[in-house]
Amino acid sequence: MNLAAFVLSWSPVLLLAVLAVVFKRPALELSVYGVLFTAALAHLAFQTPLSVILMAAVDGVVTTLPLLLVVTAGILLSHLLVASRSIDRIVDWFLQGLRHPRHRHLFIGLGICNFLEGASVIAEPIVAPMLRAAGVNPARAAALSIIGYAGLMSVEMAGIIITVLALVTGLPLGELAAATAWLSVPAVLALAAAIPWYLPLKDGRWSFLPQVLGSGLLVSLVALVTTLTLGVALAGMAGGLALMVALMLLGARRWRWRPEIIRDLLPFAAILLPLLLVNTVPRLKEATQSLWVFQVQVVPIHRITMTPFFSAYLYLFLALGVAVALFRGEVNTRKVLAAGLRQAGRALTAMALFGAMGQIIAYSGYGVGFAGLEQMRNIPWVLAMGLKSYTGSWYPLFVPLLGWVGTFLTGYGVASLMLFGGLQVHAAALLGASPVWLAAGLTVGSAVGSISSPFKIALAAPMCGALRQEGEILRRTIPLGLAASFLLGLILWAF
Question: How many whole angstroms separate alpha carbon 218 and alpha carbon 485?
């Protein structure tokens, strides 16, 4: 393994980390510097043709399009709910039914957050403004909207992440799901331990830690049991719902039903009910995955499939329409939505550029026309094989870090699996280790990487008034993600 190439493969990570942590640059600047640097690195150091780089960048933007639609709808919806004070009324309603005011942070940040992600609903557009309305400052609300679900994300998204992992590695889906669910327990607890740092001082911090850890343990154990008994597709929803019910039962004596709250909850029902149906009713799930399907192919080796009736963005726009109809008499909806679009511009541009950066990295080393791949010129291959070569028997310690790196660079946990999943099977054979556990460690590490991803932070920040504070957020979440990844690696290595 060429040491110089291995060091260069880490340079995009180091560049973004320095710009975010040291210079506290916002997401849009990070994305511009990142895509330009990565393109130059792929062309000059890894000898990738410019035509391949350009096509890979366009492929990254198109691949990101479904998520951009989710973000657009989520930003517009959150703006309308905030302007109409609907979010404030919902949070107040939650608060009056909980035994202690600080329980609302657990209800939203761990309960609702994991329930939504488990149902394949992008949590940030809903959870970040709710946390802001619950008294958390903007930057910390943005971070918490990701920290709350990142530890459990591997067994969320209706099980699609484990499905992709099984396809990439060829390992049994059931064994992968079980190992990933077990490893998600310490991941949830590690991130939950950091939650008090992000809460208002008036609500207490370290005195609140046992309740935070207990809540994290409940969410992760219910998800684990659900994975082992009912299947991974329901794990995240079950974990989040269990905590929500537990907190509601603790405060049930003081809970007062308000019929008018139904109106405020209707937009959320327009998101959740269709997604629950299409993810839990087999015939409906099959139908929505085959109805009105679009396929786009920018590069010859990657076909992008869009399924509007199965994806979250259609139902987010449905919820937006419901909210407009409900609140148009209270706010100037046209003005509110126009302001939301203006604010969304920077975030959407940053996310599209991060998507382009991720695909440039993934397709580095391909020849003209994507005719063939030279592995020694492929950044993910060099990074992963170098890590294996230089760490030897310590390799399992760094597997979650590899997953973290993939998500940090691309913004997608699934992208980490596509980049590094197959390698775990080969590494396990060389080391005499379990390929299932190495693949699970990679997956949970990629999930933890969400909290340190400029892409994810760019998604969360504009939802709660933290636009242009992305660098400050990343300064805190990058060390947290690295620490959690190494903790998981230590557990994996001990196995």
Answer: 21
pTM, whole model, 2 decimals? 0.79
How far is CA 91 from each of CA 22, 86, 139, rounded to the nearest angstrom? 35, 9, 19
Residue 448, Cβ density class (10 Å: 0-12 exposed, 13-18 middle, ≥19 buried): buried
- The alpha carbon dihedral of 48, 53, 56, 57 has a sign of positive
Nearest to 91 by CA among 113, 78, 107, 76: 107
**Sorting pLDDT into bands at 50, 70 and 90, what band is 205?**
low
Q: Fill in the DSSP letter of residue 76.
A: H
Residue 361 · residue 38 · CB < 8 Å: yes
Write the CB contacts of 185 (distance below 8 Å, at least 6 apart in sequence).
Answer: 217, 220, 221, 224
Check whether 368 has a pLDDT greater than 60. yes
- Report the C-alpha gap between 97 and 257 in whole angstroms: 9
Q: At 177, is the pLDDT very low, low, confident or very high (cuts 50, 70, 90)?
A: very high
Distance CA(374)–CA(159), nearest Å, equals 33
Q: How far apart are CA 346 and CA 71, in angstroms?
A: 12
CA distance 168 to 419: 9
The secondary structure of 388-441 as a DSSP string is: HHHHGGGHHHHHHHHHHHHHHHHS-HHHHHHHHHHHHHHHHHHHT--HHHHHHH
Both tokens of 371, joined, read 């005719």
Residue in the block written with tokens 């990679």: 442
| Long-range interactions of 429-433: CB distance < 8 A, separation 24+ | 430/388, 431/393, 431/395, 431/396, 433/396
Give the span between the Cα atoms of 320 and 156, in whole angstroms.
24
